[in-house]
Fold this protein.
Amino acid sequence: MAEKKVKKSMSEAPKRGGSSYGASDITVLEGLEAVRRRPGMYIGTTGTSGLHHLVWEVFDNSRDEAMGDFANDVEIALLPDNRVRVADNGRGIPVEIHPKTKVSTLETVMTMLHAGGKFGGEGYKVSGGLHGVGVSVVNALSTHLRAEVHRDGGQYVQEYKNGGKPVGKTKKIGASKLHGTIITFQSDGSIFPDRELNWDTIVAHMRQQAYLVKGLRVSILDLRTVKNVKDEEVFYLRELGIDAPSVTFYFEGGLRSLVSFQNHHLETIHKTVFYVEKEQDGVHVEVALQYVDDITSRISAFANNIYNAEGGTHITGFKTALTRTLNAKNGSGKESDSFTGDDALEGLTAVVSVKLREIQFEGQTKGKLGSVEARGATETVFGEAFSTFLEEHPEEARAIFGKITLAMKARKAAKAAKDSIMRKGALDGMTLPGKLADCQTKDASESELFIVEGDSAGGTAKMGRDRRIQAILPLRGKILNIERARIDKMLASEQIRNLVVALGTAIGDIFDVSKLRYHKIIIATDADVDGAHIRTLLLTLMYRHFRPVIDGGFLYIAQPPLFKVRKGKEVFYAYSDEQRIELVGKDMPLEEIETEGAAQTEEPEEETKTKKVPKVSVQRYKGLGEMNSEELWETTMDPARRILLQVGIEDAQEADMVFDMLMGTDVPARKSFIQSHAKEATLDI
């Protein structure tokens, strides 16, 4: 009956607006035009991460040559005018006429999506670029690209401009005894608003890749400030001997070395790093792990050397085998003494890498492995090898079981404490904390929570806010450093408990980001050392226990002004020393023009009439509490005028290491970090 009704309504559907819809309305994007029209579909974003993705795509081709034992030396050079040059000593892209496209194979690879040696045949047994769109996408999103190939005794070149359009045909320009490929490209400014590549980001990524391919030499050169680089005269630019920043990575230890590197600032539970490398059912499995004295787990996942931020089937197999093996070797026999997955993961640093010929990722950016066969292979290879490791290394086994048993006992104690707290909260109706001045709207998408420092700032913020959409939660002093605190200790802290209840998501195994009560959580601390410390403590809490809040783009940092500049009757706000200098001039030091503060600038009008009003006065804000409610609203809280910094995580591994260093117990590592970055700090003395 329902089906009949639907058919009738469809057949009688009226034509709206008299418009027709036919073949002429279908747009066909040819060649690389689709990439330029929708770049986000191919590189994720046109922001900084997408810009760096271009470098990764070109490098991945060189890396795949090394994975097939065809190359062992890759050089990445950053050149002036936002150019990047990647050279490898692999086989070189074929240059002969392709039988299907009737142009050179080089041009085919550079200008056609899904053209490459990774779709069957014997071009690559293992590769990261399954989709085959890598270098052609880079070409499409570049204003200029030059491909140079050395193979079969010749040197061949072809150039492309304005989104991948060939400039002539592939031509031989000379003889060569070398073999390999050099790709030089210049990103398109009309696609990428910011074309400045980050040196540290590139170095970190290449270090990781060097660990993953044993015996591969990876060199990075920063030649961006060097004029007249003769980049077409030599194969590797390091041969020019230019004095410029450079770094080279070469690791024989592979994943063992990577685990040791990730743990270098942590106290290890056992000295020997577990390692296995074996092929199972066509899947090459490689795993390294080591336990450390910490409560956080760090598992890095790779498939065909592509980092899988969201894990995948290989991680599922690894975790299953880890818990099963530990319980089998524990020998207690009591179900109450069985380790859970969380127990087994506590304090674990592990790298799981698989390589397989037919690989499937979930999504173009390859964040999660979907290949089903990877789970079984990883589970079998790792489970058998780890069981043998525990038998053959009794000291390491005792240390590991001691660590996990402690985690199990702590979990039980924490659960009891958490259940007690949650039961008490339930009896109290989980009422919102008294310190919270909630907003009127119940629509989370338009609600904002300002986390401020102290009752003074809280009072000012409550007076100045938009009560309909803005809530205020003042904190009393510095919250608990949760870096090494278990959840029971965290929930015993009133400050943290108030924040958890205010957010509405709960915490731990019952955390649910869909219940978040505010879609803008704004940290608004003072612009001094204490404010920076409180902000760091809050960021640590959010990163460790509310990570989906950050991933969802819900966390922000407020940017209140540092100065209020009064010029006669006009008032300006400066958010940095540079802006203050622009307003008052370089020849007027702050000490000579700074006023007494808010009290003087806000004296009654009749009192100021007897005084000479200065032509220029500058008030330095030390904290939000020094502003009146109107000032706080128009500078920091007004959605139409305020400045907010959205908190994101570009490199989770690097972020994890920094939080460990800054908030953990390794004092020498923290001291070294501070000394290394001292010149970057903005001091408020």
